[in-house]
Amino acid sequence: MSRLRIKRIAGAVCAVIILTAGAAPFLWAGTDRVIPGVRINGTPAGGMSREELETLMHEKNEELKTDVLAVKSADGVIDEAWKFSDFSVHYKDDEIDKALKAGRDGNIAKIWYDRWHALVMGDAVHWMASYDDGALGNKVKALASEYGKPPVNAEPSFHGDGSVTFSGGRPYLKFDEKALLADAGRILSNGTSGEADVSVLDEKKPDLTEKEAKEVNVVLGWYTTEFGIDGSRDKNIEIAAKSIKGVYVKPGESFSYNQATGARSKENGYQEAPVIINGKLEPGIGGGVCQVSTTLFNAALLSGLEITQRANHYSPIHYAPIGRDATVAEGIIDFAFHNDLKHGVYLYSDYTPGSVTIYILGNREDKPSYVDISTDKNDVIPNKTKTKIDPSQKENKKTDEGHDGRHVVVTQNVKWADGRTYHDTFYSDYDPVDTVITYKSESDRKADEDKAKSEGNDKTE
């Protein structure tokens, strides 16, 4: 065979190979099927028909229901998992056309290249998921609203052995809502679980940090006082109790009751209720707040805290032992204590209609091993009887009963397991209230005296 013939045969073979190679991508891909080498969201889909793609889409939509959008801030304060199903994440039928069009767009040269590239190297077609942007927007707004409120301390849980654990709590956070929406939307559209970053713009932490909460693990002391049901007074007690609930006092810091409770005003919710003024009950805004300060005083005594400001009422009160009350008056009389313990203390109040309990929580190392609150003196200060004339009164005689006063001394003795001790003394002087007898006229007074003398002589006889 001549060389010329051999060259012609070789040329023909090369031409066949070239023609075959050029035509192969067209021969192997029908017009109604995905071209070979294509993967849809990681799944091989070459040669699939529209019906087969619909089945694949159904399977992937089912998978989307179990995917999760993680929403986190850098410091870990916000750490949530939102289900894709909450936002109706799904692939639409339009995405099927995207797979079928792969390798079919452009001029013949581009189509040839795309098909050979898919056949040899593989080609990725990514279906984009659709979602309910209104539901996502509401979720982001709800998160912003939750963390946009003033910071809240963790709530304590009380256990039978006197121990305490904390859970929950929330800081104030302001974050970039638009950025979170965009990041979350990108992940949902991508159709795979992912983490959206919360970009914090402003933050205010609770008084009680996570580290401090771990150190508050036991009840140092608690006290309960009771009261009759009275709408206005009850409301004032509830407001005052809530105002000190969750206050954390660090070691070396002081607590002021008036500062914690704020102004006793109608604007702050306080109502008019009876208050003791000069030994008598008179209406006043905030009546009842002294019951909370008295309850706190007794809890502080039992916790071994140093009381720095305390004053007794004008007269003894019924809801606490004599000498163990603590009156307050806005801007005039305060109740305060200093935390000289090794760790911080946390105030917790529990109000129910008819009673209020205040717990002082702290570290087990600061729990007293011995506490004694004793009354060392309870001396009577006699009252007097006075008379006066008031022609304007209707009765011939009217009596306003008074009562004796008291001089009371209460002592606080505390010991700790490590050898620490603390002692304090509290003096209470309750002024006597005179009995006042008012006559309409002098003759009424004289007649009453004569009658008393006569009755006295009869008794003597």
Automatic annotation (TrEMBL):
Ranges of compositional bias, category Basic and acidic residues: 387-405, 441-461
InterPro entries hit by this protein: Glycopeptide_resist_protein (IPR052913), Vancomycin_resist_VanW (IPR007391), YoaR-like_PG-bd (IPR022029)
Origin: domain of life: Bacteria
Occurrences of domain YoaR-like putative peptidoglycan binding (ranges): 93-191
Sequence segments annotated as region (Disordered): 373-405, 440-461
Protein name: Exported protein
Organism: Dialister hominis
